[in-house]
Specification:
globular, single chain, 39% helix
């Protein structure tokens, strides 16, 4: 079994970080970027910088209590190479991005006809595209008869800006977890 090891950076609220350090990560809800999993930026590819920018977006959305600026957690991630789907640079990346580009055009066209409010339209578009990304991964799993432990993918940290990241579906791939640098961002 060939394994790949990564250092991931995850942003969260302080209380949640303390719980993660006690009991480990739990997958997010299914409606996220590529489904239920634990989301990380790649520390080796500007992960701390991107995570700090993403944390500011989370603060703007008031996802943590007002007095909580959030924290960055660093984690060791080790998965069997055969169960990692590389949608960032691998053989499936270009078909994936072509698929999402077509779906984005379709969704934006449909929503422009039905929703006038720009914020509501963006929210609906993002939700639909999350569903299509998840559908793509699940479709590949079905075609290839494999269940991926992790997906490597470009993830947004601010509007229209993406960083290198991973979504870990099998939480036992996540090893040592600690605060990245100090306790708050």
């Amino acid at each position: 079994m060939a394994v790949e090891t990564y250092k991931g950076v995850h942003t969260t609220c302080t209380a949640i970080a303390e719980r993660i350090l006690e009991v480990g990560f739990l997958p997010s809800s299914e409606d996220r970027y590529v489904g239920a999993g634990v989301y990380f930026f790649d520390k080796a590819k500007r992960g701390i910088r991107n995570t700090k920018k993403y944390q500011k977006l989370r603060q703007k959305r008031k996802e943590c209590p007002e007095d909580d600026k959030g924290v960055l957690l660093c984690a060791d991630i080790t998965c069997d190479k055969d169960y990692i789907l590389d949608l960032e640079e691998g053989e499936h990346s270009q078909p994936f991005y072509d698929f999402i580009k077509k779906k984005r055009e379709y969704v934006e066209n449909e929503l422009s006809l039905s929703i006038q409010d720009e914020e509501e339209r963006k929210k609906e578009r993002d939700s639909a595209l999350n569903g299509y990304r998840f559908e793509y991964v699940k479709g590949l799993e079905e075609i290839l008869h494999i269940k991926y432990d992790m997906v490597k993918i470009a993830m947004p940290y601010i509007q229209k800006a993406y960083g290198s990241g991973f979504v870990v579906y099998r939480t036992d791939c996540i090893g040592h977890v600690s605060f990245c640098e100090g306790k708050t961002v």
